[in-house]
Amino acid sequence: MNKLLAAFTLALVPVLGFANTGPQTQPANIDLKDQASLQNGAKYFTSYCMGCHSLQYMRYNRMAKDLGIDDASLRKYFLVGDAKPGDLMTRAMRVDDAEKWFGVPSPDLTLVTRWRSPDWVYTYLKSYYVDPTRPWGVNNVMFPNVAMPNVLGDLQGQQKAVMSHHAGATPVAEGVKPLTAGTLSPAQFDTMVRDLTNFLTYAGEPVQLERQRLGVWVLIFLGFLFIFAYLLKKEFWKDVH
Ligand code: HEC
Fold this sequence. Notes:
It comes from Candidatus Thiodictyon syntrophicum. It is found in: Membrane. The protein is 51% helix and 10% strand. It is built from ten helices and six strands. A two-stranded antiparallel sheet has the order 1-2. The chain has a two-stranded antiparallel sheet with strand order 3-4. A hairpin with a 7-residue loop joins β3 and β4. About 2% of the residues have low confidence. Bound molecules: heme C. Heme C (HEC) binds next to α2, α5 and α7.
């Protein structure tokens, strides 16, 4: 039995070992109740990302309602191109154009925080580094050889890779450090990326905000249902002895 246990434990070692190598994600600290952050994230998303990416199930006016954006602000700050409030938030670029320019289509981002995780998206957006061998002159620690250019590079400033040193293994980029200053301070940039990630997390499951409100009504309804069911039961059984 002990041998079996030892064999089992040993068999797990490589798995645990691998889980610890590779780039680490940083906590995005998302908070879906932070409406100001969600609004900022939406603003950044429509101005910096929607040229290439869509949120294909989200309508502008639904987003505005969920995030407390009034109609005038929605029209002034959020609508992309000639979109109308009732339109879906689809990208400005056509999918086949994106494929022509980047070699891959820029994916719809509705579920990105779910298939990756909010922390991954947050870290990814902060992990671009200069790499002259790549078509856009940049690469990414979290997504090696990524086809997306560093669209936030001017705000963040350029970064260089921190390479790994593991005996026998080819060095890989495992972190970044600053190379040039951007137009935002590091703290401002972190907040911006956090707001963007917060917004994308909301967009992945907009009903989360609604579910909490709905939950209360469901409980009240169940309460009433119980009382009626109880009274009904008493009524049915009152003559049975
Ligand atoms: C110029 C076009 C372009 C812009 C603008 C752009 N992206 Fe991208 N993005 C791409 C392409 C192309 C890919 C696919 C990369 C690949 O598969 O190699 C991508 C991939 C991604 C991914 C990874 C998806 C995955 O496969 O897991 C995320 C996250 C992402 N983009 C977020 C953003 C955010 C947030 C913004 C705005 C700040 C943004 N992108 C702006 C073109 C763009």
